[in-house]
């Protein structure tokens, strides 16, 4: 009987998927926290505020996390996810303005 070594690439894949899920969760939290305070915001302003918070490593007042690199595509993907889930909506007549 011969034992085969563990398949490390599977562990790496799982770790990468887990990291991406955590990143998406943080971005979704940032988006909802910002919109809860602002009530409505132009999508461009929201993207810039989320990216700025990611670079500073701030989730909100008094809440810190490790800063990470995020791009506008990441934020927009999370915005679409939250729109599909019903957490956000577009303003009537002004679809570029998002509301919580």
Automatic annotation (TrEMBL):
It comes from the Eukaryota. SMART domains: Cullin_Nedd8. InterPro entries: Cullin, Cullin_neddylation_domain, WH-like_DNA-bd_sf, WH_DNA-bd_sf. This is CUL9 protein. SUPFAM superfamilies: Winged helix' DNA-binding domain. Residues 19-96 form the Cullin neddylation domain. Signal peptide: none annotated.
